[in-house]
Amino acid sequence: MTDLAIIGAGPAGLAAAIEAASLGLSVTVIDEQPAPGGQIFRNVERASSDPALAGEYGSDGAALVRRFRAAIQAGGIDYRASTTLWHLDTVGGVLSLRGESGTGSLVAQRVLLATGAQERPVPIPGWTLPNVLTAGAAQILLKQAGAVPRGRTVLAGQGPLLWLLADQLAKAGATPALLLETTPRGALRQALPAGLAGAGFWRGRAMLAKGATLMAASRRAGMRVISHVTGLRAEGEGRLQRITWDGGGSTEADTLLLHEGVIPSTHVSRALGLPHQWDETQLCWRPEVDAWGATPNPLLAVAGDGAGIGGWQAATATGALAALDAACRLGRLPEHARDSRAVPHRHLLRRMLALRPFLDRLYAPAPGVLAPADDDTIVCRCEEVTAGQVRAAAALGATGPNQAKAYLRTGMGPCQGRMCGTTVAAVIAQARGIPIAEAGALRPRAPFKPITVGELADLPAG
Amino acid sequence: MFAQRPDPRPATVEVFVGDAALRVPEGSTAAAAVMLAGLPAIRETPVNGSPRLPYCMMGICFDCLAEIDGVANRQACMVTVRPGMRIAPQHGARAARMSA
Predict the structure, then answer these.
(1) What CATH number should be reported for the domain holding residue B37?
(2) A254 close contact with B: CB closer than 8 A
(3) So what's the pLDDT on residue A154?
(4) Which 3 state secondary structure label does DSSP give A432?
């Protein structure tokens, strides 16, 4: 029995664990990775001195993980690395886990989902070709293995991560040849009011300055930038060979790194039946939570990017807030103490979210990213189902991704719809002339990750 | 195709990707080893037999499914390398194994 089970050891999970343990709660942190940090600070204990990763990763990321390690030393935290949550009984608070030593279960009084974000799928023609990866994938290879793409690398899409990656690759001696930026003409002008409102630019000035520095550095390192690109296609026989775009654009490439921002990883929160809302600004599903991250389910809270994209600093704030609320609900912290301790975290959260409305509008994915126009484009990578097939299913009466799954197997492959769910909903919504919110979100089922029959059989009876 | 930068992190763990032995840094995943080995594909899809390599590297896309130490359909990006690990490509859909 643990007071608080935290799923995910990224910034939100780590901050929550540190806060909860300091309040005397027994905490269990479950994480699929072998070391703490989440995707953003992945492998930071080994890689923080890599000059290509200097900056937030090497300094703030390493510091956060050190604080977590110190909190483990101080007692009260059971950190289970390389462990996957594959089922959660929300009535009894029973977590089914698979770790390196097999399957087992854990009972928790409260569960905090800190499962973070995933990159938004970028379904362009040819995106399944070998050597087409996400920008995040290349960054993970750099953090984890010190590896960089060899040959001619092209980045395509938009968002702050592309510029950060370009700078990191340049510092690692592998400057990308080209960035094909998909931000449409006029997007900046349309986004400006959102930055001016509430003094977003002023309060987010440090973030803006960092962005400008990254952009200047990658250009200085020799990366060419082509703006307002539409109609991206990856082409080649059995592997990526060239990239083309509207207006006759074409370039040879050995590696293509795609990125159109990140979206909350809602696989587990949806599987648990929590209510979700379609966020019209961030264009993604997010679980309904209150100001403490609490969901309508009395057992469950969600913190960090999994509850809406805010970045790693905002995630540490929402993680700490959820921990304070957990302590209060478990009777270890009076309400007034919870509220007063929350003040600095709320202050940090407001500051970190100040620039978000501007960024969300500036880097909003084009309609063709959400629902690819070309019928031959693969939407579901697992079952190799195209946008045309999804449109045909919509014409036959499929009202949303849960029905399309029965028609086409979209969501029945090994990824369980993690990649295609949002795209299938957007394609159906477009075909039927309804809002994406009405098409709905896929409802995944446990096991959240595949387990073997042997692992299932190894579970203790009872 | 990815290449290693030997200076920041030495490649100390020997693994096998297909039949080729290579060394990768401690803490790398099997999927990173696949990218560093320069394999043209880690699997062919069950539906159309099209070649795939890792795409997301963070456990989302399942395109890096591989046979690791004899166990098929493992997410190579979620498996940390160990000395002597054998990472083998998967080909298409699995057939039933008939024992004589």
Answers:
(1) 3.10.20.740
(2) yes
(3) 98
(4) helix
Question: Which bin fits A116, alpha (ψ -120 to 50), beta or left (φ > 0)?
Answer: left
Q: What are phi and psi of A100, to 5 degrees?
A: -65, -25
**Inter-residue contact A240 to A126 (CB < 8 Å):** yes
ipTM for the assembly: 0.95
Closest by CA position to A292, among listed A8, A12, A1: A12
Instruction: Tell me what pLDDT residue B92 has.
Output: 82
CB contact under 8 A, B27 and A43: yes
Is residue B61 in a domain?
yes
Query: Shortest CA distance to A40 belongs to which of A58, A66, A22?
Result: A58
Of B24, B53, B62, the CB nearest to A130: B53
Measured between beta carbons, which residues in chain A are less than 8 angstroms from residue B1? 131, 149-151, 254-255
The amino acid present at A255, given as its one-letter code, is T
Chain B residues touching residue A256 (CB < 8 angstroms): none
Interacting residues of A213 by C-beta distance below 8 A, sequence separation 6+: none
Residue B6, token pair as written in the block: 């030997």
Q: Which of B27, B65, B73 sits opposite A144 (nearest CB)?
A: B27
> A374 touching B, CB under 8 A?
no
Q: Which domain holds residue B69?
A: 12-88
Determine, yes or no, domain membership for B16: yes
DSSP conformation class of B29: B
A39 touches chain B (CB under 8 A): yes
In a domain, B3, yes or no: no
Q: How many domains does chain B have?
A: 1
- Tens of pLDDT along A1-55? 999 999 999 999 999 999 999 999 999 999 999 999 999 999 999 999 999 999 9
pLDDT band at B99; cut points 50, 70, 90? low
pTM value is 0.96
Contact between chains at A140 and B57 (C-beta distance less than 8 A): yes
Residues of A in contact with B35 (CB under 8 A): 141, 147
Is the Cβ pair A134, B73 closer than 8 Å?
A: no
> A130, B51: Cβ pair inside 8 Å?
yes
Count how many pairs of residues, chain A against chain B, have C-beta atoms within 8 Å: 137
Instruction: Flag whether B93 is in a domain.
Output: no
